[in-house]
Model the fold of this input.
Amino acid sequence: MTKPIQDSRSRPAGLSSRFTGAHYLRDSLAFLGCAMAFLAAGLVIGENYVFHILILICIWSAVIAGWDLLIGYAGVFNYAQLVFFAVGAYGSAMLSVSGGLPALAAIPLAAGIGGLFGALIAIPSARLKGEYVALFTFAVHLALPSILQQTRGLGTGGSTGILGLPPISLFSQTFYAIDKQAWFLMALIVAVICIYLIYFVVLRSRFGLALLAMRDAPAFSEALGVNGRRYQIAAFAISAAITAFAGAFYAHYTAVVTPRILGTEFFLMAMVMLAIGGMGRFPGALLGVCVVVIGNEVLRSFDSYRLFALGLIVIGSVIFLPHGLGGVLRRFGKKDSPRA
Amino acid sequence: MNIVEILISGTTQGAVYCVIAMGLSLVYGTSRILNFAHGALYTLGGYIAWFLMYGGPGLSFGLAFVVSLPLLFCIGVALEAGIIRPLRRHANWQINAIMVTLGLAFVIENGLQLLFGPKTKTIPAFIEGGVSIGGTTVSLYKIALVGISVLLVVLLELFLARTRAGKSVQAVSQDLQAAAQVGINVNRVFGLALGLSVVLTGAAGILLAPVFQISPTGGWSPFLKAFVIVVFGGLGSTRGAMLAAFILAFLEAIVVASVGPGWAMPAWLIVLMIVLMTRPKGLLGVWEN
Done:
């Protein structure tokens, strides 16, 4: 049984106001305002290195938002999120390099493939509970690099990966990776759309409410007519499609795809983001992304100790901040106004 | 590969898988924690023995093995008290426990890499020579491997069945609440279980070091195999894990002999998927999934 992730104090009154229509416009405007501020900050600093970091924050935000949807809100212990990212990246790379499609067509197609793949993973997962899901999905994650190695003949490139992905062309203009400002704008648009879709469209709908009900009271919600299996598969598909979209975008930004995206470093980064940010506590996960991406750049000088430190940060933040930054924020919010 | 070789390979692998998987099952059975660091602790065992033999003290293999075991036990107890116990206060501790043990796995992995470098280390086989069985030469090392593994498993079973501490472990795994009510110190049992589990997996890491070399990331494959075994045998059932270990080891030997070693890992994952989809409770499972 999955224990409720939210604390019980805030549920009866808090749930209705937070997840259905109330303050929808206010919260949307606040989110868009934050995005505009982020955009303005980036443009004011206007340096290529800073743009690169901001682009990474945007891409990771979309991935972590997708993960948060499954692990935090739907309560599914999914550890295959980077598999979806890799499916998007490889899908788009194979479509554009081997298939000759332009990037603008390959990226949405890859997102579609990612969504299908997510549903495929979800079908066995939806029969399982708790740690079994964690194990199954993590096994998929661990198996993928060797599958990519074995399917070299299909154009996955084995351990070298795929090189020379085409840059995005729009309105007869081609944006090469060197044009960081344009990529920053595109990444921000991608991130805003993904985050808005997850936190404001999916999670504020009846569907989102059903996911929360499934997480907090599985038996009761089934009794009320929530088709748990179908909802869980749909949640997987949405999360995977969005993550694959981000993965495809990332692949075209870096112009190479290697199995490194399934390596320890990326997985640890994603875990630290969620652990620091807090699961199921918007906007905690997104704050986690900012903290970790910037922190990772700061730690870059201690290169060999970085992964070790990231692991320690996961342990430390889970023990000392069990609800992450999102939990801290919410606690402060409660002190300021009783209804936040 | 003939039938005798398959039998021999299946028996040796099965015995060692048994040791690894029973450790994992023991911890899951008592404290309901899916220990993602189990594989990393397996590797840690190998490194501790290597260090005792070649790094500093220069002990012999037997001495290093014997010295490692209490060390591993202490590590397990310390981990339980230090990073698992604080989690139990919170409502969502199960997912946090998965996060923490995964984090721990990466810490151990990267810590070992920092200390010993990414290159693999080897420990030579502790017994040389071999005997001939049915026309095939079996190294004495493999026979000793089976012997020590079986000894460890028997000792664990005796401990669980005969001693007071072992019975309290069983009581906790049957009913946590009731065990606490009759005065069993639950926290101490959790610590004991993780300590024993680390001893088992670390011992397997040491025993297998001559075949599979020791490398920082070498623990993931035994971990995954152990998990497939535990799921197949039924979570929480040590007997089921024992049975499943041998079944799957023979299956692996057959796959390696007929299709090739590259298919061993995919075969494990396929078994995992089939078991999870048809009978998640496992062979001798106690709980509904």
User: Anything to note?
Assistant: Chain A has two domains: 8-259, 263-340. The radius of gyration of chain A is 20 Å. The longest strand of chain A covers residues 168-170.
